[in-house]
Each structure stands twice: as C-alpha cells, then as structure tokens.
Design brief:
alpha+beta; single chain; 28% helix; 6 helices
Length: 281
C-alpha cells in the first residue's frame, strides 16, 4: 500500500512483541513474512526437497509501467507449467476467508469542453451549457445506467473544472481557475472501473463510451479514455478446488474452516495477470 509523501501515515511503529502498525503492514508485508515462514516449514519437514516452488516478489505493483505484459514478465514466466499459484496479498483482512476471485480495475479520464462566455448568457443555444454541466450530465448518466449491476463499480474520484483545468493522473492532483461570472470551458474527471470478468469490463466500457458520445449538451464536447489496468481473476472450478484443499489443511491444524470471500471485497492484485495460465489460483 502506497501513501502520498505528504500523508501523515508514514511511520513504522511497534505496538508489542507481536504487533506492529505502519504503511503496508497487512498489504502486503504480512504476506511476505508468510511466504518465508512457509518455505522454512516445508524445508524443516523435508517436503521442500520433493517440490518445485518458484517465488516471485515484485515491489512495483502500484506503479509498474507499461506495457503491462513486459512489466509482469517475471510473473508470466513463473506461471508457465505451474499447477498452482498462490498470491499472498491480503484479501478481506480476515484469516477465515481466502480469495478465489478478484475484480480487475482500470482507470478512466473524462474530459469535457464548452464555450466560454459571460455567465449571464448560459443556456443560450449559441452559447451552451459549459463544460461542468456536460461532465455532470455524463457522470449522472453513468450512475443511472450502470449502478447496481452485480460486481460492477465505477467511481469518479477527482474533478477539476473552470476556465482552465489541469489534472495530473500520475500524482492524483489537479488545479483549476474560473470566475463565478464565466461559463467554464474545461472539466476533467478521473476515476476507476472494477469488474469481475473481461466481458463485464468490455460491456461497461462500451456503455460508458456511448453515454459520452450521445446527446451532448449544447456547445459542448467530451471524450473518455481508459488505461490498461488490472485484469480480473474470475472464480473457476480450479480455484474452488484449491480453496477446498486450503480449508481442509486449516481444519487439520485446528485453525478452523476457510471460506471464499466475496470478490467485491478483494482488490485488484498482480496474481490476476496469470489468470488463465494456471489451473488453480
């Protein structure tokens, strides 16, 4: 988990001999510790000598660069021929659950433009409604059309608008200038889109693009773009079989049953890039 440089949550702090608090403690330094301890346990019992295990640790999930297939080359190479893949990133924060399905995520940027003029002339057919009203029309249409579909969410996270408006999606910061008596010329919105399957992603993007293109307010225009994002990890029979093995192992050591977490509570993760390459994840 990455916090901005000016976030107050930057410090590692020991709470006791058994507990600590700080950025990334659960997601996913805790997972790294589990990997190391599991390998030590397998070695101590001699089981590791009869196994072929590849461990891939990558520290660039939050900013991997593009194209994604090159950024994730080590993961894809390790997945070739593998029977099982286990991601040690935190799911719902509950050890009684495990993740067999994760929604993918992609970011989108909406840009609307209008005709600048004195505010007293707004709504005239030759002046129009301005960029902010057009952005608001589109966002509300997204909500009316797509909200409530199972496993699909979309969130406009940052909006800037005015006579001038600039948004840096890399730093998630923007700036705008506008006077109360001037119709805004530009509005920019950034957000994310999450879905549980590639088909759901494709349909949602198609519908969002259609909303942007259809029936713009007078004297306005808008465009929307999507980045590569993270692919989804859809639940499969192989994933359910792996969960059953994990559940039985947990019961055998007295740790209790383990059930599948709702995929809506599991964020996107690097392991999703090998979905379809490994029978059980």
């Amino acid at each position: 988990t990455v916090f901005e440089a000016d976030s107050p949550f930057q410090k590692f702090e020991r709470l006791s001999d058994q507990q600590a608090r700080g950025p990334g403690i659960i997601d996913m330094k805790g997972g790294d510790v589990i990997i190391v301890q599991a390998l030590k346990a397998l070695r101590a019992t001699g089981a590791l000598d009869r196994m072929h295990v590849t461990v891939v640790m990558t520290g660039d999930e939050e900013s991997a660069g593009e194209p994604q297939d090159m950024a994730r080359a080590a993961l894809l190479a390790a997945a070739k021929g593998a029977e099982v893949a286990i991601g040690f990133e935190d799911g719902a924060g509950d050890p009684r659950t495990a993740v067999i399905g994760r929604r993918g995520t992609t970011s989108w940027t909406l840009t609307a433009t209008g005709k600048p003029a004195h505010s007293s002339q707004i709504f005239r057919s030759d002046i129009g409604y301005g960029a902010i009203f057009e952005a608001a029309r589109i966002l509300n249409a997204f909500r009316e059309t797509l909200a409530g579909e199972p496993h699909l969410t979309f969130n406009p996270a940052l909006v800037v608008g005015g006579t001038t408006a600039e948004l840096d999606v890399t730093t998630a910061r923007g700036s705008a200038f506008g006077k109360d008596n001037v119709i805004p010329e530009r509005a920019v919105v950034s957000g994310d889109l999450r879905a549980l399957s590639a088909e759901q992603f494709a349909q949602a993007r198609k519908r969002m693009e259609a909303i942007v293109a259809s029936r713009p307010l007078a004297q306005t225009k808008a465009t929307i773009t999507f980045d590569e994002g993270y692919p989804p990890l859809a639940p499969t029979e192989g994933n359910r079989k792996l969960l059953a093995l994990y559940d039985q192992a947990s019961r055998d050591v007295g740790a209790g049953p383990v059930t599948a977490v709702d995929p809506d509570r599991a964020g996107a993760a690097d392991v999703s890039f090998i979905a379809g390459h490994v029978p059980m994840i």
